[in-house]
Amino acid sequence: MAYGTAxxxxxxxxxxxxxxxxxxxxxxxxxxxPFPTHEIGRISRHLQGILTVELxxxxxxxxxRLAVEGRCPVAFHGRMGxxxxxxxxxxxxxxxxxxxxxxxxxxxxxxxxxxxxRPEGTGIAVHRADAATGAAGRRGGRQ
Length: 143
Prior knowledge:
By secondary structure, this protein is mainly alpha-helical. The chain folds into two domains: 5-112, Rossmann fold (3-Layer(aba) Sandwich), CATH 3.40.50; 113-143, no CATH class. Helix content is 45%, strand content 10%. It is built from five helices and four strands; from the N terminus they run H-H-E-H-E-H-E-E-H. The strands form two sheets. It has a two-stranded parallel ribbon. Helix 3 links the parallel strand 1 and strand 2 (74-78). Helix 1 packs across helix 4 (87-111) and helix 2 (37-44) crosses helix 3 (59-68). The longest helix is centred in the last third of the chain and has 25 residues, at 87-111. The protein is globular and about 45 Å long. The termini are far apart. The relative contact order is 0.13. Mean pLDDT is 81; it is low at 116-143.
């Protein structure tokens, strides 16, 4: 997500990312008031992450985080003092965000395996292999 001059840089970085097979896009608000909270919240349900590219110290990123409400990670890449980031720098930030989202998904899959069941009479979910033996896991439950 970027606006103004930063959006032109982001557009170049997105073209390079797509050449490398990354699925990326650009949300470029024309105006920041009123802030597009509803639109960002709506699309965040379908995204793995959002990178905000700004020529500031990150004023827009806070509004984006509020709009997303934790549905996906939000990262920031910006420069101050009139320095404009290069498309390669933005591409690097996109790659870093992609790696972060992959780690988050891997951790979530590890903590919440898709084949867990809740044995009758216990308050916790255990792996199917444990369910056959009646093991209740480390957090207690009926022994």
